[in-house]
Amino acid sequence: MPKRGGGSNLMWSAADPSTGQHGPEGLYELGNGWGNENVFTMAEGIVWFRYHNYIASRLREKHPSWSDEDLFQSARKTVVATFQNIAFYEWLPGFLGEKTMSPYLGKYERGREREREREREGGG
């Protein structure tokens, strides 16, 4: 489970749905200020949180020498890819119905992820 709020991280912009009070007390720290806005977004956040921890624990079994950061980032990539797969190949076609998106004609250059990450962080 995500830890309960109550620390100094006041990122919450939505009120606690059960009390109407603002602030982190009694809310989950899901990484998104809107994660506690309603029961569905809270439940969805907890499901993805638990899935991330499940993937990380499986990776720990397969790769016991990996650091916590390596485990976290690898699990994160799996969770993001799973979410994208659901969104693009299951939800989006149902939402669009007969409408279709044009194919992506851009060029993906494999192996440049670290370079792009440094560029986004302003280091490169």
UniProtKB/TrEMBL annotation:
<protein>
    <submittedName>
        <fullName>Uncharacterized protein</fullName>
    </submittedName>
</protein>
<dbReference type="InterPro" id="IPR010255">
    <property type="entry name" value="Haem_peroxidase_sf"/>
</dbReference>
<dbReference type="GO" id="GO:0006979">
    <property type="term" value="P:response to oxidative stress"/>
</dbReference>
<dbReference type="Pfam" id="PF03098">
    <property type="entry name" value="An_peroxidase"/>
</dbReference>
<dbReference type="GO" id="GO:0020037">
    <property type="term" value="F:heme binding"/>
</dbReference>
<dbReference type="InterPro" id="IPR037120">
    <property type="entry name" value="Haem_peroxidase_sf_animal"/>
</dbReference>
<dbReference type="InterPro" id="IPR019791">
    <property type="entry name" value="Haem_peroxidase_animal"/>
</dbReference>
<feature type="region of interest" description="Disordered">
    <location>
        <begin position="1"/>
        <end position="20"/>
    </location>
</feature>
<dbReference type="GO" id="GO:0004601">
    <property type="term" value="F:peroxidase activity"/>
</dbReference>
